[in-house]
Amino acid sequence: MGLFDRVEQRLERAVNGAFARAFKSEVQPVEIASAIRRAMDDRAAVVGHGRTFVPNLYTVELSETDYERLSAYDAELEKELIAAAQEHAESQRYQPGGPLQVLFSPSDELETGVFRLRTSTARHTGNTGLSRPVDRPAPPQPAPRHTPADDAVEATQLQAPATPPPARRVNPADRPWLDVDGERYPLMGAMTVLGRDNSADIVLDDPGISRRHSEIRVTTDGPHLVASIRDLNSTNGTFVNSERVSSHRLADGDRITVGRTTVTYRAGRR
């Protein structure tokens, strides 16, 4: 029996066990596990050959109160969350973009009992667990409670979470995508940030890349999707076909270089 089953049973039976005493009206571990499963389902993308790609990095933003309380259960909670996410991925035949990782960070914008979940794809993951972010941009305002969003999921114990509507699946073959060392990264959103920080949509493990290095915007031009890349004031710059750019409209086959990493832009099916 896992941590979340034990917590759920203790809460239902009103038993004052260790977690029931610790969390009270604060964020519950079962809520975080459920949010990770929902986020995984919402961001699932079929990339061909029967493979369904999902993010592998999940950053849980907590109020200062919840963050401090969770630190007492860091190792066990992290292990159980990753195990629950792995079990869900296997049951749905999802392929994470790398080793599953769960990170925690505090946010002074969140109230006790509310958390925000960020998802991204990291080819190489670093340390897991509780950490204080360094030089991170200010997070956006929290979305309304129990309203699913692409990159933010909030939950509270004050009322039962509503069942999110079925996610509308978009055929990734119609979307532009990036080829990173032979791996395909569909550009499913209107904006995709490349960088070294965990808040980036595609995390690249390269010391020459800034935390938030550049962004790719996908817009419509009549019946077609077009993309442009913009440098986010990075230290080492963004290059397209060996030329440094501040902003540039991308064409199929363009080679984008950030740090020591080169990726190829593909326009997708037209």
From TrEMBL:
Protein's UniProt keywords contain Phosphoprotein: yes
Comp. bias (Polar residues): 119-130
A family per Pfam: FhaA_N
Positions of the UniProt region annotated as Disordered: 119-150, 158-177
Domain FHA: 192-245
UniProt feature, compositional bias: Pro residues: 136-145
CDD domains given in the database record: FHA
Cytoplasm found in the keyword field: no
Classification via SUPFAM superfamilies: SMAD/FHA domain
Keyword field: Phosphoprotein
Entry-linked PANTHER family: NUCLEAR INHIBITOR OF PROTEIN PHOSPHATASE-1
Protein name as it appears in the record: Forkhead associated (FHA) domain, binds pSer, pThr, pTyr
Lineage, highest ranks first: Bacteria, Bacillati, Actinomycetota, Actinomycetes, Micrococcales
